[in-house]
Write a structure and sequence with these properties.
Layout lengths: L5 H24 L6 H24 L2 H21 L16 E3 L2 E3 L1 H22 L2 H18 L4 H16 L5 H20 L1 H12 L4 H15 L12 H4 L9 H34 L3 H24 L16 H15 L5
Antiparallel strand pairs: 1-2
Length: about 350
């Protein structure tokens, strides 16, 4: 029988209401995407299917999920690798962030966050019995980190490693893990800063290029700052008509902040933080280290992703969707599936 955490459901509902409203008015107001088909697609892929994922994983017992974890990891890993093969890439894409087969397309890195957290959570108890699992876990983290890095998807990689770190910090013997993850993060940061295209991108932003990233950032900043304390009012955004690149994904927070101002932004951020605090509260109440690991990992995943998205509207665009708000079906399905497990943890 499906049992619901009322606080979790209320917070998820508030965030979904905000996201649905903003996406609806953007699709109606912007000449480039003025079509209800886009909105219906959002409802189907960003709301309906993720809710199904939430319900499905809420119904599963912890021991059943434990048996599924290795298979979920294997499937996610296979798709992560297949995304590098040209025939499975989106048309015109040079990166390997998306997997496409026919009319189906998604981002494997989003599902890998979910499956790795789940797999490592179950590895926690095994490491106590056999240290071999420690090195197996480190190998898995290192291999997947490398694949996400060469996609390239640095922001996703930072969120991935941050969520794993939070999970290991929640258990008693975290020091070795944290040290290895820290080394991986330092190496990645060094490699990233040495890559020519990243240097050019940063220099372009600093010089205020009229095209691409610099233009998007400038428009997003203007939209946010023009909102003031109370905002221009719901449905009264000027920048969604003038146009900000990627309004439904990368820049959706800018449109929301323009309409609702500082107060509305505070309500949105507070709702996300309350959701994360609810997850952490459940983790504190649970004595099982596997469940504790998973809760802290998911809580950090959601908060880190929200933080990266909001900051990217001010400093550097990253392509990271804002949980529950942006159009990002892969990310939202993975997050809601993880929340479905957390919803039922105390009853498992």
């Amino acid at each position: 029988m499906l049992k619901l955490d009322l606080y979790l459901i209320i917070l998820i509902s508030i965030l979904y209401i905000i996201g649905t409203f903003i996406v609806y008015e953007i699709t109606l107001a912007n000449p480039g995407i003025k079509s209800l088909n886009v909105f219906y697609k959002y409802l189907l892929l960003n709301v309906f299917f993720p809710i199904l994922g939430f319900v499905f994983f809420s119904l599963l017992k912890w021991q059943t999920i434990k048996k599924l974890a290795p298979f979920l990891l294997l499937i996610s890993f296979i798709f992560l690798v297949l995304a590098f093969i040209p025939i499975f890439k989106l048309p015109g894409q040079t990166t390997a962030r998306w997997f496409k087969l026919g009319f189906i397309s998604f981002q494997p890195a989003e599902f890998i966050k979910f499956s790795v957290l789940l797999f490592l959570a179950f590895s926690v108890s095994l490491i106590k019995k056999d240290k071999t699992y420690f090195w197996i876990s480190i190998f898995i983290i290192g291999l997947i980190s490398f694949l996400i890095f060469i996609q390239p998807a640095l922001s996703n990689l930072i969120i991935f490693l941050a969520s794993i770190s939070a999970g290991f910090l929640s258990v008693r013997y975290h020091h070795k893990y944290f040290l290895f993850i820290l080394i991986i993060m330092v190496l990645i940061a060094s490699l990233s800063l040495s890559q020519e295209y990243r240097i050019k991108r940063i220099l372009g932003i600093l010089k205020g290029d009229e095209k691409g990233t610099a233009f998007q950032l400038r428009q997003a900043r203007l939209a946010i700052s023009s909102g003031g304390i109370l905002g221009k009012g719901l449905g009264k955004s000027e920048f969604k008509i003038i146009g900000i690149p990627l309004m439904l994904t990368d820049s959706i927070f800018a449109i929301y902040a323009e309409e609702t101002g500082f107060i509305g932004s505070l309500i949105l951020i507070s709702s996300i933080l309350l959701l994360v605090f609810r997850i952490f509260y459940k983790a504190i109440k649970i004595s099982n280290e596997e469940k504790k690991f998973f809760c802290y990992g998911v809580g950090c995943w959601i908060s880190a992703q929200a933080f990266v998205h909001i900051i990217s509207n001010l400093f550097l665009t990253t392509g990271i969707p804002l949980p529950f708000i942006s159009y990002g079906p892969s990310s939202q399905f993975a997050i809601m599936s993880a929340l479905g497990i957390i919803n039922n943890l105390e009853n498992s």
